[in-house]
Amino acid sequence: MFNKDNSNTLAWHLNKDGLSNILLEDLMKMSMSDASAYQGVFTYFNIPPSLKRRPHFSIIVNVGAHFAAIYAAPQFILYLDPFGTPIMQADIVQAITSAKHDRPIFTNCRQVQALDSTHCGLFSCLFVLHLETKRMQTPFYKDVQLKFVSSNLAKNDLLCVKYLKRIIRK
Asked: 51: pLDDT confidence band, cut at 50, 70 and 90?
C-alpha cells in the first residue's frame, strides 16, 4: 500500500474524503525514521497489550470519529487530543498502563483544533512526529517549535499542514 509516488503525498492525504487509519499510517511511514518508537495507528479497543511493557512508544489512536496521539516515555505518558479533552475510553488507560511501569498520564487541556475541522488525524501525526524528532534530536526539532493560535482555531489547520510539510520534506 505504501509508496513514495505522487499519489501518496501530504496533498493527496488532504484531498481524500476524510482520514482513516490506513491513510495516517501511510503518512507516518513517509515521515518516521527506523529509530523512532512509533508503533502505528490503532482503534482505541485494539491497542496491542504488549505496548504497556515498553518503556518508550508512540501511537495514534482512533477514538471513534476522532484521532489522538499517545507518547510514552520511561517516566510519564502523554495523551494529546487536538480538542483538549481527557481520555474518555477506559480501554486506552488499561492498554497503556501497567503495574510494572507505573507512570502518570498527562493530558493536554488546550484545544488547538476547531470543532468543525477534519484535521484531528494530522494534528495527531504532527504531535507524534514532533515528540519523536525531539527525542532523537533531529534537525526538525532544532528549528521548529509548534505554536498554535487560540483566538482563531481554524488557522491552526493551516499551521499543522505547514509543520507537517516541513517534516516530510526532510
From this structure: confident
